[in-house]
Every structure is written in C-alpha cells, then in structure tokens.
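Bumping with the actual sequence this time:
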Amino acid sequence: MGKIIGIDIGGSTTKIVGLDNNKIFNPMLVKAADPVSSVYGAFGKFLSVNKLSLNDIEKVKITGVGSSFITDNLYGIPTGKVDEFRAIGIGGLFLSGLDKAIIVSMGTGTAFVSASYNEVKHMGGTGVGGGTLLGLSNRMLNVRSFDDLIETAQGGNLANVDLTIKDISMDSSVGVLPPDTTASNFGKISDLATRADLALGIINLVFQTIGMLSVFATRIDNIKDIVLTGNLVNVPQAKDIFDNLGNIFDVRFHIPEHAEYATAAGAAIICSKE
C-alpha cells in the first residue's frame, strides 16, 4: 500500500504531510502568492526531500480555501477534496490523541470546531487571529512579521497597557476571576508604555480573545478539552495566556506535536479511512 498525502492549501501558505501506516511523517510548509503554484511546489519539494517517486504515492487529499483552484489530479495521482472544517476536527483529534474536543484553528482568522470521530461540527469563528496580530503590529509598531513581533514583545509589561480587576476593585477577586485578570485590553495604556509593552499587549489581546471564545465553545457541548492548531501555536507567549485561562475556567488547552499541520493531517487521515 502506498503513502497518502494530505495538503492544506491556504491563501499564502500550503502545508503538506505524509501518512504511512497511520503515522504522520515530515510535514512541511511552502509559501507562495498563487495557490496552484504553491501546491505544486509543496508537492515537488515533499517528494524530493523524502526521496519519493510518484509511484510511491497512492492517493492525495486536499483541503483549505485554495483547494477550489485545483480541478485535476495532481501529477496523475488520484486526488480528492475534503471539507476544511472536517479536516480541522479530525486532524486535531488525531494529533492530540483525544476522542472528543473543541478544535481551534488559528490562522489569519480563527475557526472553532466541535469534534468527535462520529461528528464534526463547525461552531463558528472570529476575524481575530494572525491577521489581527500583523495588522495591529504594523500600524502601531511598524513591525511586519511574526518573528519580529515576538522578539519585540520580549520583556514587555502588561501593567503598562491592560486594565485589570485589581485596578478597578478593592475586592481580592471577582467570582472565579483573580485580581490580575484582564478587565480591558489596552484599557490602561500609559505614556510610559514601551514598544515591548505594546507588542505584548497586542499578543495578549489576540490570544485572550481566542482563548475566551474557546472557553465559551466548551460550554455549548460540555467539553473540557481544547486543541489549539494552526501557525499561531508557535507564538511562545501564547502558552502562558492559554494556561492561565485554563486554570481560571477549568478547561484543558492542548498544543500537540505538529499542531500547525493539523488540517493537512486531517485530510490525510480522512483519505486513509475511505
């Protein structure tokens, strides 16, 4: 039996994974402005890096917003399409080892999917995501890349940016919320705020928003586990933000290995079951 390829074709990046004996191998990413060029470039690079020939590939399954541009089999290999939200759900479950969870796909925007192996349900989404990070950092800091934003945020102090409960209340806590809980992102921005403070404030705003919407999603289906996927899992400041929300609201955030490739992995897993 040959290997299966899963490909997630986005607007600016294409992610590709291999599946062999139910194990993901050597996921990779290719950037290109054109989805068609991106998918063929990713496929060729994947074959070259893994020293594979076209005869080694049994099937290909594609997904993502750019998959609509692919109308033929890739290099003559049987190529199918799968709904992106289904791929997000199944991929998140597979990588995390969970049977049921809220899968959060953090890309340019953010999608929320309630997933089990019996049912995958798109719950909704938000325009807050990677595009928000880059848009705000570009406008406020003249920073145009994730790496530069992450570096700029090092040593930042949210006390110079965000309003917390202890700033507005004499009580030690409000309900389950500890005193250092954010009451308003950028609600206490100071003239003394540094570039690092502003950068960290932008990161905090985006990930707290995604985190809280994830918590709300768990309440709908009474699920405790949240699997984070997509490129934003690589922002190092995100983990502490999510862990803090998990402790407050009694949910579990998971970032599995290869989380940024979950949608491509989901496409491959779905293909293997057909």
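The tokens above came from a reply further down the thread. Residues 195-221 form the longest helix (27 residues).
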